[in-house]
Prior knowledge:
Helix content is 75%, strand content 1%. By secondary structure, the protein is an all-alpha fold.
Amino acid sequence: MDSILNPLYIAVxxxxxxxxxxxxxxxxxxxxxxxxxxxxxxxxxxxxxxIPLFVKQIKSQRxxxxxxxxxxxxxxxxxxxxxxxxxxxxxLYKEHKTNPLAxxxxxxxxxxxxxxxxxxxxxxxKVPIDAKGVLTTEDGISAAQAEFFGAxxxxxxxGSDIGTVKLxxxxxxxxxxxxxxxxxRQLMTKGMPKMDSSNNMMLQQQKIMLYAFPVxxxxxxxxxxxxxxxxxxxxxxxxSTTNLWTWGQQYYVIKRNPTPGSPAFEELQRKRxxxxxxxxxxxxxxxxEGTTIEEKGQRQQPKKKKKKK
Length: 309
């Protein structure tokens, strides 16, 4: 298994080590700031690479929203025939070139990287250190000593007796649950068009994700602490950062390019109309003022005196 994933270990560890080397002159070799920022830098690089997938996700979500009336008709027409209903749904997706699973692409693409980072950091926390990828033993020792708010980034909840590790772990799990909830709520309250809630599959799924997923995540986070299958602090830093990126990226899209028919879209239209209205009135005032000044100028022009013969 390690031999198959070794290229991924190399890629992840190379990015972290490279960023760490760039930051070493500023913060020092064994600094927790250097290693923590290296993990955050990995998130930024990965999320920039995944922007095309994110764009595809947005387009797919909007296409599915536009197809809601057709999907509802199919559900009514074939309510007693699940197989036929599924076939018609697939035809509809194919005809409009959309994929309901596109929203999962960014998460699925990050999963191998997440696992590779977990393995690399887990190896650092072992005694003796099990360096993965391009990490040397010296790099492993340095990373193992690095701290994030007093918690070594290679330590886990049950794998450490340090109270700071437990506090930082609980805080990061709570932060991840909060950002997941606010991201989903932001999408539902501002980013989705107003639609009939009765028999609306997409809206029901969004509601389930909004309230159930953070709870499940928090429970599994506590479960990690109980069973010992918990993540190293460094992995929690990665996950917290990617959640924050997701929230900010979605906020930008909702604010700047909202889905037609959504509350954010209506709000943007109102602002644009208001802005255009002010601009037009300003232009008209300027024109009227210009005309007045011109007219006054014409009236104030001195008349030429006729010369007496």
